[in-house]
Amino acid sequence: MIYLNNEKVNIKKFPNGESLISSEGLKIKHDEINKMKLKFENDEDITHLIFLKGHLDQLKVKCSLEIAYMPYSRMDRTEGMTVFTLKHVCKLINSLEFEDVSIYEPHSDVCVALLDRVKVINMSKILTEELLQNINKTENLYLVYPDAGAAKRYGKQIEYEKILTASKERDFKTGYIKKLDINGTVESKNFKAIIVDDLCSKGGTFILTGKKLKEMGATEIYLVVTHCEDTIFDGDILKTDLITKVYTTNSILSKEHEKIEVKKVI
Question: Is 0.70 surpassed by the pTM of this model?
């Protein structure tokens, strides 16, 4: 899905599946930088991005790009015979020569290194700091990082003293987590916890982290993630009372739930 200057670009289809993109109704700015936004839903969005940027180039107008969730972020390396897809997507975006490219909470630093003129929007930090303002910190409140990567990233971004970090042991044959421990101690039981990360799929890691926190005495557990896939509805986060509430954005998510609070970024 593509937006231009906050207006959704409507795309029709020919019978054979080809896209018909009309610039009629689009508010194209000729004297300032146009703002294109991408909410990736499938590979067609990349094709539409190419077509629309080419049209704006013909009109000789400037344009920036804002990406709610960077496509192919998980494929940020070559493993065996798998294609380094992220590298090629970034190369394609660079070739379109946007004035600048903004990304909400990249899954890794690889896409930041591969993109030209890139700006990072640390959305998980923003969501966490907003939540911290709304919770009484005197009630023994801890930030919890579900792995070492999250601890390294958000430990630099968020200034907070009460920190817990999870460490996990994964079975690489099955992909399942065999063991998870919480590193750090709590002052007393009856504490509150905010788990912070960038992405949630079914939420298995967060459920395991939440269970350990409950064993330690947590009374309320919140989850903050910038990107939340619709597959969260297939996991246990929304089916149990373990996680009190999820704070996320609409970068990927397309469904609603009473336990999910969504901040619109697109």
Answer: yes
